[in-house]
Design a protein that fits this description.
The protein is α/β, with parallel strands linked by helices and about 375 residues long. It is built from 13 helices and twelve strands. It has two domains: about 120 residues, no CATH class; about 220 residues, Alpha-Beta Complex (Spore Coat Polysaccharide Biosynthesis Protein SpsA, Chain A). Helix content is about 50%, strand content about 15%. It starts with a helix and ends in a 15-residue tail after the last strand.
Length: about 375
């Protein structure tokens, strides 16, 4: 085979190794003993910034009404009374009258990040010291708060986040591909990155105390950052606190009903991550092991060794996915051909991510930023 074929083959083999290690880490994480929450469970304020509805929005929000925890309040925030999600909140409030629910309607903007503006507006309703900020499309189990509070109670912890799986919101192939990316590429990659020293905050869950939030300058400190979760995590770590994972993995709805929507969403992710961590993002190209195996076969002129590598790579990815399905208690991963289509699509997203630095976020065009931290004038937490 040619030198190019050998290089592509090495990349494919590296991708298999990376996937295998990441899969093992997920299996190990799921098998860890559950940490005990504190004996005196603190009351919690859950903040849910909302904007419009998507497939499964009501189901996702309802899961927060079904949390089993002694005392917690639910704070929902929208920027206009005409937002259709208001009707969803009102239906749930009527269905669960015993829940402590507040709905904040406030159009005030505090920066370029509208989600953070929404959260800032919601802070007036907060009554408890423990804050849990969560995206609108997240589905959580009843024990969610117990696991998050247990992680937050560990010594030195300032911020708790969670991994998450992808839940298809529609039967469209684009939706299945989006969930495939989250479950079989993002998840093992995120845990591997953490093992290698990164402390990423994932915006699906951001739990902290009011004191820690004040220490980093409040939510105003990230009001102009597209990747508010990552910058929030960096600020907390810069103050000397630890950022840790709770032993719970909620699901996020994958709502894209066509390939155009999936392209916009994944391109936003890609360009945001490229701006934040350019070198690790470039290395993430190794995750596309099937793509590299296809390239090896093509540039080799159809050499049998390259085609054998392609078959081995495809089977390895499928086997790893089945292991992840079992560990995460997910539905069957689907047919092996979907991994081939997914990797070719990922290669398209990867190339496109280097063709600009603007992203489309709910119709708002924003420039991806590097997450540079504001000057820290106070001493680190001790």
């Amino acid at each position: 085979m040619s030198i190019l074929a050998w290089i592509a083959g090495i990349f494919a083999a590296a991708g298999i190794i990376q996937q295998s290690v990441g899969t093992w880490l997920i299996e190990r994480f799921c098998a860890l003993p559950v940490a005990s929450p504190p004996l005196a469970l603190p009351p919690v304020s859950i903040l849910k910034p909302l904007c419009g509805t998507e497939p499964l929005t009501e189901l996702a929000l309802e899961s927060f009404f079904l949390i089993e925890y002694p005392v917690y309040q639910l704070i929902f925030g929208v920027q206009t009374e005409t937002d259709p999600v208001v009707a969803v909140v009102e239906r749930l409030r009527a269905r669960y009258p015993a829940r402590d629910v507040t709905l904040i309607v406030d159009p005030a903007l505090h920066g370029t990040n509208r989600k953070i503006s929404n959260l800032i507006n919601m802070m007036v309703a907060v009554r408890h010291d423990v804050l849990v900020m969560s995206d609108a499309d997240i589905h959580v189990p009843p024990y969610f708060l117990h696991r998050v509070v247990a992680a937050l109670a560990a010594p030195g912890v300032g911020l708790v986040t969670t991994l998450y799986t992808g839940l298809p919101g529609t039967p469209h192939l684009a939706t299945r591909m989006g969930a495939n990316q989250i479950n079989y590429n993002f998840l093992p990659g995120a845990l591997l990155a953490r093992r290698l020293g990164r402390q990423d905050c994932l915006g699906v869950t951001m739990a902290m105390t009011a004191k820690v939030l004040a220490d980093i300058g409040g939510l105003q400190a990230v009001a102009n950052n597209l990747a508010d979760d990552q910058v929030l995590g960096r600020l907390v770590v810069a103050r000397g606190y630890r950022l840790t994972l709770a032993q719970v993995i909620p699901a996020t709805t994958v709502p894209e009903k066509d390939f155009a929507a999936l392209f916009r969403h994944e391109l936003r992710w890609a360009r945001t991550i490229r701006a934040l961590v350019p070198l690790p993002y470039a290395a993430s190209a190794l995750q596309m092991s099937i793509f590299w195996a296809v390239m090896a076969a093509l540039v080799s002129g159809g050499a049998w060794l390259a085609w054998m590598l392609f078959v081995i790579t495809l089977l390895a990815r499928y086997a790893a996915a089945r292991r992840l399905d079992k560990a995460l208690k997910l539905a069957k991963s689907g047919d092996a051909w979907l991994f081939l289509v997914r990797d070719l699509w990922s290669a398209l997203i990867f190339v496109a991510s280097y063709c600009g630095d603007t992203v489309d976020w709910r119709g708002q065009i924003i420039r991806a930023d590097s997450g540079e931290l504001p000057a820290l004038t106070e001493q680190k937490h001790v």
